[in-house]
Structures are given as structure tokens and as C-alpha cells.
Amino acid sequence: MSRYFTPAALGQVYLPGPETPLAIDLLRETVPPLRIGALHLLEMAERLSESPRAAELWRQDRRKGYYEMTELSLGDLARRAEALAAPMVGTFQVTVLDWLHVAAALEMECTEYVDFQPGVRAAARQAGLFVLPIATEPGAPFAPTPYLITEEVTHDY
């Protein structure tokens, strides 16, 4: 079982936001290393550009081995994203980049997908991924499992 965090979800770990507690819980219960791709590097650089401290924490966590770079062919990724999106055009509020992340999760053979945006979550679920956190699902309480990362992941801001 492998978990894919979108940069939007991962960004909540490094830049405080409304979903930060859930993002941190989900990251803590993820067995490292977490697979990331070039899309993560590009988006995280943009997200963290306004906070040198957050950007440095992201770099430190990558050096510590919390994340593992996975090389993906952009052509293959685009074709898979197009195939996933084609039958669902207009069904969900998602961007091309969102579809690329769903495709990347599948290419990396991830079974779980972490995001907080309703449209993206619905698209990932439709593509066959188990979507987390379950707390944002109507009627399903969030029940974190025991933490597997032994070193503290949270950062003081």
C-alpha cells in the first residue's frame, strides 16, 4: 500500500492552513519514503517560495529520506491523464494539473490519494484510488492509525 500526497496536501504540512492537522496526521502515519515526482518539486517550490523557513524544512525532510524521487515520463503521464479525464470531462471541478497528479499516483502504483479539494478527491476516487482523509467524507469520522514515522514531522512556525 502506497500513499500519494498532492502538493496541495503536502503544502499543508509546511505552511499552516485549515487542513494542516489532518495533513500532518496523514504524513505521520505514512511509511517513509513518500514517493514524489517532478510535479511535486515544481509545485512545492512555488508554494513555499514566500516562506524561506518552510522551503528549508522541505529540503531538510527530503535530505532525511522522507521523500523519494520517482522518475515518470511526461508523455506517458499526459496520455494516462487524458485517458482518465476523457470520460469524465465536466463531471468534476479539476484542472489538467489535477488529472496529471491522479495519473502520477497510478503510475507510481499508489493505492491511496491525499487531497482536500472535493473535485480532485472525486476524480481520484473515480480513477480507483482510495481517497484520504476520510474525515472530509460525509458521516465518516477520521480515525488516524498509530504513527509510523518516529522522528517528529511537525515544525514550529
Structural notes for this entry:
With 157 residues, this protein is mainly alpha-helical. It has a single domain, classed as 5'-nuclease (Rossmann fold, 3-Layer(aba) Sandwich), CATH 3.40.50.1010. The chain has helices at residues 7-14, 20-28, 38-47, 52-63, 74-85, 96-107, 118-126, and strands spanning 3-5, 34-36, 67-69, 112-114, 130-132. The strands form 2 sheets. A 3-stranded parallel β-sheet has the order 1-4-5. The N and C termini lie far apart (32 Å).
The CATH homologous superfamily corresponds to 5'-nuclease
Order of helices and strands: EHHEHHEHHEHE
Q: Work out the helix count.
A: 7
Per the CATH scheme, the topology name is Rossmann fold
Domains, number: 1
Spatially, the strands of the biggest sheet line up as 1-4-5
Computed Rg:
15 Å
**Poorly predicted regions:** 135-157
